[in-house]
Amino acid sequence: MSTIAASSSSANGVNRCPQAPSPPRVGRGKGLRLAPALAVLFLTAAPARADLRMCNQTASKVGISLGYRDTQGWVTEGWWDVAPKGCETLLRGALAARFYYVYAVDYTRGGEWNGRSLMCTRDTEFTIRGVEDCLARGYDRNGFYEVDTGEQKSWTIQLTDPSQPAVP
Hints:
This protein has 168 residues and is mainly beta. It has one helix spanning 36-45; strands spanning 2-7, 14-18, 51-56, 62-70, 73-82, 87-92, 99-106, 112-113, 117-121, 126-129, 140-148, 155-160. The protein contains 1 helix and 12 strands; from the N terminus they run ββαββββββββββ.
């Protein structure tokens, strides 16, 4: 799993912090003995988790909108509310794209995490196809910042305060 830290600022500082996945752990209880073949069966039977997650490392409640390209073209979705110090899964399953785009709003203190990639949003829950003519189609237009997953199948984005150091 890899992690990216993003800070709220007009310059939108984004730091990449690779994080190795934790190896699976097999508990050994006293008096309980598993044959090695059986232990391997249990380890391979569980599917690996692969998701796009957002962790909010701030003291504020934040709203997240996500943009990405799928087989039908560009799509933006929102809003996920992420509690302070909490995490949410934005997309379940192995990631299909290398680049994802995030626009976030600080509900508690105001402000936003944004970037240069213009995409469509709206104030209430949404799924919008296409990124062109947002205003003419009755949507808002906001700048999203790019997240490069390096073609990993699982990724966690760490949203941080600009005054706080990035979480490794």
